[in-house]
Structure formats: structure tokens, C-alpha cells
Amino acid sequence: MENRATALAVLVMRVWMGLNFVFSHGLSKISDPEAFLGYSSVQKFPAPEVSGWFAILAEFVGGILLT
Fold first, then answer.
1. Whole-model pTM?
2. Are residues 59 and 27 in contact, defined by beta-carbon separation less than 8 angstroms?
3. How far apart are CA 25 and CA 52, in angstroms?
4. Residue 57 pLDDT level (bands cut at 50, 70, 90)
5. CA 36/CA 38 separation, integer angstroms
6. DSSP letter string over 17-58?
7. Distance, CA of 43 to CA of 52 (rounded, Å)
8. How far apart are CA 36 and CA 56, in angstroms?
């Protein structure tokens, strides 16, 4: 019985976290990438275009895969 409750709790947390990444973080960045990429260049990240796109895709696609 405890094993099922643990598995259900882990499933709920994974779905919640994945959807949170997709809709709260990734969707806003993927819908307007220029705004995020402009902010990244202001912060002086190395290769802001490449690292910015990695961040956008990690949050959007990673959230989908986590869900």
C-alpha cells in the first residue's frame, strides 16, 4: 500500500513540476525569444545566443519530457 502511495506522489510531483517548467518558464520564453536573449546579453553570459537558446529549450522541452 505504501509503495503505491509513494509512486502516486512521485507521479503527481513530476507532472506538476514538468507543467510548471513548460507553462511558467518555457512558454513565455519560447513565444518571445528576443526579449529573453536580449536580457541574457545584458547579463554578459558567454555566447548569449547559444546559452539563451539552451535555457529556453531546456525549460520548454525538458518540462515536456519531465511530464
1. 0.77
2. no
3. 13
4. very high
5. 5
6. HHHHIIIIIIHHHHHSHHHHHHHHHHTT-SSHHHHHHHHHHH
7. 11
8. 9
First to last CA, the chain: 24
For residue 27, the Cα-to-chain-centroid distance in whole angstroms is 8
* pLDDT tens digits for range 1-37: 579 999 999 999 999 999 999 999 899 889 988 888 8
Please name which of 37, 62, 64, 63 lies closest in space to residue 51, comparing C-alpha atoms: 37
State the Cα–Cα distance between residues 39 and 48, nearest whole angstrom.
Answer: 9
Mean pLDDT of 36-45: 72
Q: To the nearest whole number, what is the mean pLDDT of the chain?
A: 87
